[in-house]
Amino acid sequence: MIKVEVLSTPGCGECAKVRESLKAIAEAMGHDKIIWRDINILDEMDYAAALGVMSVPAVAIDGRLAFSSPPSADTLRAELTKRLSA
What we know:
alpha+beta, Glutaredoxin, four-stranded mixed sheet
């Protein structure tokens, strides 16, 4: 199982796009393979800083920063598929 986190702030349009892409990808791949959560960095600044997040949206996979800028849906899907087959 892969844990994916979208690090965002309220009102961020790009964050919403990444969140919706991830939600659709997770549903398509199966909730038994991918779990995800949206993290408001204003509530979890220490965690975001520990990951090295400098701007939002950012995406962490299994507790490590994977994308420091918004990935396309295809890029995110490819990365998750690669990790699931590893």
